[in-house]
């Protein structure tokens, strides 16, 4: 047993030291809890938090499961370089996930989710700003450009912008003439797009490092081990067991293992439908041109983020279970899309760059799983953030602290119930 880790009400074990686990540990430690983060890989390279695009996106108020996604996805399936792929396989978990995704990809679900996603998105942005100020990491508050190269893309994004305005977000629809204002030092090839002014960007690694330091400063500890199961007293979970046989006891356990939460939840009798949404990133250490704003390239579904002196280009969503193999064709697709929008760059600039791969923990309705388990009151699940885990990490951690302390949540979390699919 870990010494001094008595299972008193004040101690909490957080499984997973990715952005969601760290943000949870941070708010718990700050509130005076005795926190232990159990993370199997301190480099975070096997998780999803290290190489992501670093975007903080209140603009993402439309869940992944939305109208049009399925028909667009079917078209993309035929193109090996496309940004979306679902690897067909005989797998009950995949079949269940796809069936639930189909059931949620409709206008009703989008309408039911948009206010919640806006509220948690804006609250998380506020917390990111507060954290950056308090913990001293750099946060760029210049907004995000959604860049479009086709009239169809522009029309679709103008509709999204109208909805964003209806929801009270600060956006501007712009034409080609504005591109030089946004990026005076680089060429941008686009017809125009939408500027989501409240979005921000940062370096995920700086964010992770700042949280780790703050957790330690607030008395938290880290254990580099793999959690393989739970420890019980009677029927009640009282901690976790690691691969080396260590027992880490805690009054509460927060399950924040990203995609791996699936297997751990199963051990508690909970079948959370979740698929890995595989994505890649490539980081140019010395980009030819310095970009000012982060951008999403509509037609290529590629994310571009300046991070200090470097430039990160990320993309693809391959629904793939837990497979982390690389697809050279899809990596090429990301590079070609980026170079079409930013013609100062060429595919040769990416030669020799080691790609990063990560599995987004994707729920079938595009909403995170956040809440206490009804059959295990001491276990709190915080995962399933899909493409918004970095963005929503602070609000998730802040809400986890409320769930641990038993305080009423300031935000209605019913739609995020971990057991909502039974
Ligand atoms: C290409 C790409 C770009 C992205 N860009 C953005 C973006 O711009 N903005 C945004 O908000 N999101 C983005 N995302 C999504 C974001 O990266 C994820 O949603 C987020 O990282 C999920 O965080 P997490 O902490 O839940 O999971 P993870 O980052 O996967 O962390 C889980 C951690 O738990 C550990 N773990 C798992 N099981 C165990 C165990 N049994 N014992 C001990 N430790 C365990 C793992 O090692 C891992 O470190 C992107 C993702 C990809 C792939």
From TrEMBL:
Gene3D superfamilies: D-Amino Acid Oxidase, subunit A, domain 2, FAD/NAD(P)-binding domain. Residues 12-401 form the FAD dependent oxidoreductase domain. The keyword Transmembrane helix applies. The chain crosses the membrane at residues 12-29. InterPro entries: FAD-dep_OxRdtase (IPR006076), FAD/NAD-bd_sf (IPR036188). Keywords: Membrane, Transmembrane, Transmembrane helix. This is D-amino-acid dehydrogenase. The keyword Transmembrane helix applies.
């Amino acid at each position: 047993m870990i010494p001094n880790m008595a299972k008193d009400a004040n101690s909490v074990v957080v499984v997973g030291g990715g952005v969601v686990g760290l943000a949870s540990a941070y708010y718990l430690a700050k509130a005076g809890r005795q926190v232990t983060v159990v993370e199997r890989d301190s480099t975070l390279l096997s998780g999803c938090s290290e190489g992501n695009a670093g975007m903080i996106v209140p603009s993402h108020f439309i869940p992944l499961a939305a109208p049009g996604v399925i028909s667009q996805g079917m078209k993309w399936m035929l193109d090996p370089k496309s940004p979306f792929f679902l690897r067909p396989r005989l797998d009950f978990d995949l079949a269940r996930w796809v069936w639930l995704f189909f059931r949620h990809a409709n206008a009703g679900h989008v309408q039911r989710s948009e206010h919640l996603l806006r509220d948690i998105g804006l609250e998380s942005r506020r917390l990111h700003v507060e954290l950056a100020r308090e913990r001293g990491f750099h946060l760029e508050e210049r907004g995000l450009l959604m860049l479009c190269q086709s009239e169809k893309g522009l029309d679709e994004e103008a509709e999204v912008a109208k909805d964003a305005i209806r929801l009270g977000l600060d956006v501007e629809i712009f034409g080609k003439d504005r591109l030089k204002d946004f990026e005076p030092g680089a060429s941008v090839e686009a017809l125009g797009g939408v500027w989501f002014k409240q979005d921000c960007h940062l370096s995920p690694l700086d964010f992770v490092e700042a949280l780790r330091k703050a957790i330690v400063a607030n008395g938290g500890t880290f254990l580099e081990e793999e959690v393989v199961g739970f420890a019980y007293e009677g029927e009640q979970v009282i901690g976790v067991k690691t691969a080396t046989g260590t027992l880490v006891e805690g009054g509460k356990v927060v399950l924040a293992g990203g995609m791996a939460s699936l297997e751990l939840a199963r051990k508690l009798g909970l079948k959370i439908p979740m698929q890995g949404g595989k994505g890649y990133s490539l980081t140019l250490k010395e980009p030819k041109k310095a970009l000012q704003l982060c951008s999403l390239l509509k037609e290529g579904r590629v994310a571009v983020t300046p991070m200090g002196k470097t430039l990160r280009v990320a993309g693809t969503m391959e629904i793939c279970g837990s497979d982390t193999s690389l697809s050279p064709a899809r990596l090429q697709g990301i590079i070609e899309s980026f170079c079409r929008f930013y013609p100062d760059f060429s595919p040769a600039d990416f030669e020799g760059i080691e790609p990063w791969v990560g599995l987004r923990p994707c729920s079938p309705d595009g909403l995170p799983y956040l809440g206490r388990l009804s059959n295990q009151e001491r276990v709190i699940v915080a995962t399933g953030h899909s493409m918004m885990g970095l963005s929503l990490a602070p609000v998730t951690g802040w809400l986890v602290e409320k769930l641990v302390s038993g305080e009423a949540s300031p935000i209605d979390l019913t739609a995020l119930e971990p057991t909502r699919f039974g």
